[in-house]
Amino acid sequence: MTGNDNSRAAHDILDWVLSFLEDNEGYRVWPDMVPGQIYRAQPDRAPLSGKSLDTVFDEFKTGILPGITHWNHPGFAAYFNSSATLPSVMAEAVSAAVNTNTMLWKSSPAGTEIEQKTLDWLQKMLGLTGFTGITYDGGSASSFHALAAMRENFLGPEYRKAGLFGLTGDHPVIYLTEQTHNSIHKALITLGFGTDSFQYVRVNDDFSMDTLNLCELIASDKRSGRQPACVVATLGSTSCTALDPVDDIAKICREEGVWLHVDAAHGGSAAVLPEVREKFDGWEKADSIVVNPHKWLFIPLELSVLFVREPGVLKNAFHFSAEYLKTKQDGRIESYMDYGIPLGRRFRCLKLWFSLNYHGIDFYRRKIEQHLSLARLVYDALDRSEDFEIMAPQPLSTTCFRALPGSGEDADSFNERLMDAINGTGRFFISHTRLNNRFVLRHVVSGVKVTEKHIQGFLSLLMEIKQHMDN
User: Fold this and answer.
1) Max Cα separation, the chain?
2) What is the mean pLDDT of the chain?
3) Of 359, 394, 413, which residue sits at a domain end?
4) From CA 87, how far away is CA 300, in angstroms rounded?
5) Strands across the sheet containing 227-234
6) Same structural domain for residues 217 and 268?
7) Last residue of some domain: 309, 340, 359?
8) Cα-flanking dihedrals φ and ψ of residue 151, to 5°?
9) Which residues span the domain enclosing 256?
10) Residue 149, in any domain of the structure
């Protein structure tokens, strides 16, 4: 292709992106696909000769787009939604174009300093002070690095020399609940904490951590010669957005000298609303906090933020330099390569900088406030209905519920069939969890385009399919 052809094709792609972001309701939320269908439709080998840009994009639209689950769709109500607005999408293109690597200050002065400044902004938006922020690709990676810092703090400097196998006398205990995200378990196992170190704290009726039981377990573990190392609290659990009593947990951790990690990957963004922030009392006392702007601040994947109280501990866990990475600026300004496994780092914070500048804080407050109100419509409608039961409180914007079968059918299988039927329409997409060992449906309001029209549409479809299944 000539330069003019490429320019025309690039503008056509941009026009498609703009149109898609403006209105994508013509697409099925969840594709009508079977496993392997997209894979088998692709050629066995990459093309020997290249194709034009418009041809490649046409092949995307015909061969890949039909297999996309549309997280940006207003009918997407599963998991925790990750939707994006125009400025953040444009920032992704700009970031890819400049293609800078933020591993060192020298390798990207602007990338390093904009990340520092933007995360300072975010911290203030959420009502926090005194933390240092670092970005990673997702909440799993952020929690992994937070827990690596916890391990460094627990084991001390001797660990770097002796390793885990040289420190067999330590018996650390990590306190979790049934609501703790599975990425925490994976991170701990990877970091050398076997499952024997996991201590599960009882939950209350609202699925929050029972602090009385936490105290009992800590005391029991200390009596048996085990060493309490960390409590993982959650603000907005994945199953039902349970909120742990972080202020009480923080007091216990301070008294016991235990690291407090707060997983607020989804829920943390809601702290942009001052009236919601009181639900997060105590998180400012944590040693580490994870918040994902790509969940509820309308930033495209991937952008997670780890806030740490003592960045030096995190740096001690990962710093290992090499001659080819030394610069004259060392010691005068931080290099993000020292705070994690990755050396190569995208300029991922640019999309948050674009978005905060374009939208302003009030936009996020209005949107999240709207989401909380819309979620309440779902909760109240199902709570009033004789055909459904609410399965958990609704502290944020997730409704956990299930249908009551009109026949003698097993409730778990009935609700699974109901979920599949809703998703099969292509109009909405919901997911499930298990609470008290029962199959529970989840409806989440966090997409940037969701309105009351979509809420009423979902409720009507839900009632219609449920009635049809009963009959």
Assistant:
1) 75
2) 93
3) 359
4) 10
5) 132-136, 304-308, 288-291, 259-263, 227-234, 172-176, 198-200
6) yes
7) 359
8) -60, -40
9) 92-359
10) yes
Contact of 184 with 147, CB cutoff 8 Å: yes
Task: Give the DSSP H/E element, type plus range, for residue 400.
Answer: strand 398-403
What pLDDT, in 10s, does the model give residues 32-72? 999 999 999 999 999 999 999 999 999 999 999 999 999 99
Q: Residue 377, exposed/middle/buried by CB under 10 A (0-12, 13-18, 19+)?
A: middle
Q: Is residue 20 part of a domain?
A: yes
Residue 186: partners with Cβ closer than 8 Å, 6 or more residues away: 140, 144
- The radius of gyration of the chain's CA atoms, rounded to the nearest angstrom, is 24
* Residue 374 within any structural domain of the chain: no
pLDDT-based confidence at 164, cuts 50/70/90? low
The tokens describing 251, both together, are 């007091």
Q: pLDDT band for position 331 (50/70/90)?
A: confident
Both 58 and 166 in one domain: the answer is no
H helical segments located in 156-210: 158-162, 182-190
Q: Does 17 score more than 80 pLDDT? A: yes
Same domain, 36 and 132: no
Flag whether pLDDT at 410 surpasses 60: yes
Specify the CATH number for the domain of residue 308: 3.40.640.10
- Total of domains in the chain: 2
3-state secondary structure (DSSP) of residue 313: helix
pLDDT of residue 406: 84
Same domain, 276 and 171: yes
What kind and span of H or E run contains 442?
strand 438-444
Of 270, 262, 307, the closest CA to residue 136 belongs to 307
Mark whether 22 and 151 lie in a shared domain. Answer: no
Tell me, yes or no, whether 96 and 63 share the same domain: no
Which helix (H) or strand (E) is 256 found in, with range?
helix 246-256
